[in-house]
Amino acid sequence: MSENQPLQFKIQEEITELAASVNEIVSRFRELQNPLRESSEKVPIATEQLDKISEQTEAATHQMLDRVEKIVQQVEDSKKGLDEIKVYTKDGRTGDISALADVLIEKASVTCNDAYIIMDALQFQDITSQQMNHAASLLEDIEFRLQSIMGALKGQPDDEADGDNQQNKRDRVYDPHADLFDKRTDQSAIDDIFARKG
Amino acid sequence: MALKIMVIDDSPTVVKFVSFSLKKNGYDVITACDGMDAIEKISNLSDEVSLIITDLNMPNLDGYGLIEVLRQNQEHADTPIIILSSEDGDDDRERGMEVGASSYLVKPFKASVLITEVSKYLN
The CATH number of the domain where B79 resides is what? Predict the structure, then answer.
């Protein structure tokens, strides 16, 4: 046995331990790849949802503003009509009063219908709130995965990192497909499904 | 006496919108914010509920669960139930029908469509 043999064994042992450590680090990094990949896949979905909220809120607001503009015009026309009725009353022109009243009744009915259209459009609040909850849920999931990665890099056990995250997490109930447009809302088609299966 | 309709949705906006549309058409409305709340309120009511309008995605007890519970109860076995949901897939519609819904409306909806659907059962 040479004089250097104990040293060789020692070096061999050190190298074996080093190789095991490197292997462990490699497998740890492989484990980290999944949450990173999943997180990166969720970012575009969340971004798409946020863009959709912006577009749909804008569209609904424009629709409502157009209707409000019409309503204001109709109310102004009605005020003018009522002023005319006052004049006709003074002059005793009952025939003109009756004709004008018909016009004003028609205007009131159009105004009422416009108000309903605004109410229909206000449903955007429910839809965008669901879209926001969906986006928030995706972002929370990304945050959770990134925290797990940070925890793993620090050598923190998974359940400890989970606990910190769960404290801040809100229960969210939403429809991931909520959309103001792109909806199959044809009621006769829906009724057909119920009739066929019923 | 006006017919009573129960509206169940976790969105206050939808509850307000649906209630307004129904009241304008002469119906009496009671509301609940989820399936559990609906069961509690409906079991404490002395009057009959003529029709139920429910959302699907709700906390505590969702629309499917609620319909299943109601259909098992003799008193509500035949009460018309309209699902009002933003889910528009065939699977959701078919599941709704399987648990016992009478009809399905997709959000966003027009008040006139809702009233027409309600009238099918109450006129």
Answer: 3.40.50.2300
Reported as a pLDDT band with limits 50, 70 and 90, residue B79 is: very high
User: What's the CA gap between A125 and A61, in Å, rounded?
Assistant: 11
Domain ranges of chain A: 41-181
**What residue of A is the nearest CA neighbor of B58?**
A173
State the total domains in chain B: 1
User: Residue B108: which of A120, A191, A193 has the nearest Cβ?
Assistant: A120
Helix axis angle, A187-197 relative to B111-122, nearest 10°? 30
The answer, as to whether pTM is greater than 0.80, is no
Q: What is the DSSP letter of A123?
A: T
Shortest CA distance from A131: residue in chain B: B86
DSSP, residue by residue, B77-108: TTS-EEEEES---HHHHHHHHHHT-SEEEESS
- Rounded to an integer, what distance in angstroms lies between the CA atom of residue A154 and that of residue A152? 5
Q: Is the model's pLDDT at B83 over the cut of 70?
A: yes
* Interface membership of B87 toward A (CB under 8 Å): yes
- The closest CB to that of A190, out of B104, B110, B112, belongs to B104
pLDDT in tens, A10-66: 899 999 999 998 988 888 777 777 878 888 888 888 888 889 888 888 989 999 999
The 10s digit of each residue's pLDDT in B19-61 is 999 999 999 999 999 999 999 999 999 889 999 999 999 999 9
SS3 A137: helix
Task: Indicate the residue of A123, A175, A179 with minimum beta-carbon distance to B85.
Answer: A175
CA distance A130 to chain B (A): 9
Cβ-defined contact of B94 to A173 (cutoff 8 Å): no
Enter the ipTM. Answer: 0.79
Q: B54 at the A interface (CB within 8 A)?
A: no
